[in-house]
Amino acid sequence: MPExxxxxxxxxxxxxxxxxxxxxxxxxxxxxxxxxxxxxxAEDILAPHPLPDFRRSTVDGFAVRAKDTYGASDSLPxxxxxxxxxPMGDSPKSALEPGECMTIHTGGMLPEGADAVVMLEYTQTVxxxxxxxxxxxxxxxxxxxxxxxxxxxxxEVEVFKSVAEGENVIAIGEDVNQGQVVQPKGTLVRPAEIGxxxxxxxxxxxxxxxxxxxLISSGDEVIPPGGSxxxxxxxxxxxxxxxxxxxxxxxxxxxxxxxxxxxxxLKETAxxxxxxxxxxxxxxxxxxSTRDMTADVIDQLGHPGVLVHGINTRPGKPTILGVCxxxxxxxxxxxPVSALVNGYLFLVPxxxxxxxxxxxxxxxxxxxxxxxxxxxxxxxxxxxxRLTTEHTESTEKVIKNVSVDSVLSVVKYDAEPIFGKSNLxxxxxxxxxxxxxxxxxxxxxxxxxxxxxxx
Amino acid sequence: MPExxxxxxxxxxxxxxxxxxxxxxxxxxxxxxxxxxxxxxAEDILAPHPLPDFRRSTVDGFAVRAKDTYGASDSLPxxxxxxxxxPMGDSPKSALEPGECMTIHTGGMLPEGADAVVMLEYTQTVxxxxxxxxxxxxxxxxxxxxxxxxxxxxxEVEVFKSVAEGENVIAIGEDVNQGQVVQPKGTLVRPAEIGxxxxxxxxxxxxxxxxxxxLISSGDEVIPPGGSxxxxxxxxxxxxxxxxxxxxxxxxxxxxxxxxxxxxxLKETAxxxxxxxxxxxxxxxxxxSTRDMTADVIDQLGHPGVLVHGINTRPGKPTILGVCxxxxxxxxxxxPVSALVNGYLFLVPxxxxxxxxxxxxxxxxxxxxxxxxxxxxxxxxxxxxRLTTEHTESTEKVIKNVSVDSVLSVVKYDAEPIFGKSNLxxxxxxxxxxxxxxxxxxxxxxxxxxxxxxx
Lengths: 455, 455
Hints:
Two copies of one chain form a homodimer.
Chain A: H1 10-19, E1 28-32, E2 45-46, E3 56-57, E4 61-64, E5 78-85, E6 100-104, E7 116-119, E8 123-127, E9 132-133, E10 155-159, E11 169-170, E12 181-183, H2 191-199, E13 204-208, E14 211-218, E15 222-223, E16 234-235, H3 238-248, E17 251-259, H4 263-276, E18 279-283, H5 288-301, E19 304-309, E20 313-314, E21 320-324, E22 327-332, H6 336-355, E23 364-369, E24 373-374, E25 380-389, H7 390-393, E26 413-417, H8 425-429, E27 433-437, E28 443-444, E29 449-454
Parallel strand pairs in A: 5-6, 14-17, 14-18, 15-16, 18-22, 20-25, 23-26
Antiparallel strand pairs in A: 1-13, 2-12, 3-11, 4-6, 4-7, 5-10, 8-9, 8-10, 19-21, 21-22, 23-29, 24-28, 25-26, 25-27, 27-29
Helix pairs in contact in A: 1-6, 3-6, 4-5
């Protein structure tokens, strides 16, 4: 029987699925911050102390009282007596008196009495014993650097530029204050987050446990990838593409293997997966009868069952979204391109919701479409595209005001759709990303700037 | 002494470093395809057989000889005798004779003699025994589906639309041909690549070994993150931010701990790291003297030594790039923001080159800058920015022709620079990405569309 499905727009379908899932209360586990890259925090993290917890210099120069430099200029420098050097990693030996300055390095602790730092570039050191100008770095070892040089004379520093109070200084708590929430629950841990936690001495944290996603492939024609298919058989692709997608998205794939086109065994396997996992994905055998079987199984596994059967998108029309006993069950088409694209569209958001992750911008690339792409109004299309640089296409072309940087993407790209029947897995493997044609468009024109979601 | 460095533009500096590294001959290792996500292939992968290796239907319907349908229409259907059903996962029991059709499911194997498939939607099944129209799916179990029904009459199929030869069929080798390079050496393995390999029965492959990156922090003021800093001390951030960046980029961080401001011990540790790793990164203590020490150490460790000392970028001016005995040594500023940003700019490209990875577009987001950002001409600036959606800012705003999709980035973003002194790690932890101000610009204007590289 032909499938006459009531197709929902993909955004609406996704919302329907997510809204039927209970508010996320992710299970959490403690781990070392050093190995938390890519995890999602399961608690608000508060600063146990201010950062920095002492006033630090941001430059190499001299710690001063700002008011001692007011009015200083090239022609009329301020003269300050050099009162020693702030050692790195230690507190200054003494406070700064009016009219004095102290050598300080980037990151050094300001002495009491100082409230600013003059950069080395705007100073000149004058040794009144030797009466010749010399710079502090030329004066030898650290322990020899103070206001009285080896022959007992006073060293003065000429300052050619005034500094304001607080200039070139990081105040206590300027990075974060004590008690401040530095990372709210749901933060994705990136290198910078790890750095922030380490700076505060936080070496352990609680993260959401990986979401367990049960993967079932169905279809009499499907065999494991290691096997040799007889005529009419194909290897299981979907367990592995979706498994990798789950891993990439912060989940843990649990493989339930391949089930033939039998309602009883599909239901049994799905029930087992539902009891052991947080999410279940069934990729249907490609025939209509097995697709219908998936919907029936979902309906029998628990309330409310199938929420959405049929989505107005290409590829992915026969996608089924359901919830049974508070857990998402997704029925994806057996076509490997459709299964993977719809995994990005529907499975990844479920995993992110269950992790309690704060939504973040997805990685995209702006590109110029190379050809006209027609589309059916009302349907959202996702096209695999290859991104090529104008640069490699034609080195003659110079793009005004845009430098071509080989490393970070300030390159201009062309988006070249990969044509091919929608079930050819290598159209996706050859693609850099997916181009979306929104439902309200009847197509996109060659030359249009489009946004490509990276795969 | 103030640093008067000859600053190179960052692109030029990077090119200089990469061009001094030998052509990559990455060590490789065999792994399971199922766990190869994020790795880089170390060999060209060829298709051992065509894909598909039999002619498959892309729809549910009837396998036909196309010429038997020519001229068929709603008012003048073609009549074909139903000659059975193609079983899923097996070859058809018989060849198709002229005037016949065979029930076939999506993914089913075309019988000999057939060259196209008519979609179910454009057909009607007529049982001449019972003289009432019925559809194949209503005829009960599979074994009962053939041209002669239970009372011995002939079943005919009315076809209302002609099909062309090859229509709704995937030809042998249409996805890939036998012997075709399906994944060249240097391919980053994503979910789709895993799927393609599985489809071909390739379950093992050789990938480049992870690049070993030795990380050394230096500075008398630096202590391990687990410790309690005394006044003037700070915790080591850089080993961990850079360690995470290395992991994320396909490398393996090797930690050499913290070395004080002593030339001898820095040189000794760097020499050890150089002999044990593929790349060495030294983050300098923040004072000028230790920064100079890094350059001297690199020069003493081998030819050619320091290639670049000083880069016209902010943050990151004092960055040092060197090569000793064919291996890259990078000296990064101690300032954690500068170290991490310059890690993205210079360390990641080195890792990618050593992995032999084919360059790929970097993840970016287009956004509208919220404020004017001045910059110094000739210098490339990287600003941490937060991305906010116009949507959350003002729900009144409707963006023409752009639907706001919460999952894949077709959202319009605002880029809001995070101000703060450049050495505050939480300015980076709060940022979604980095905004580049090119060297030839004297700033960017509020309202301008900019490209933000995601962190």
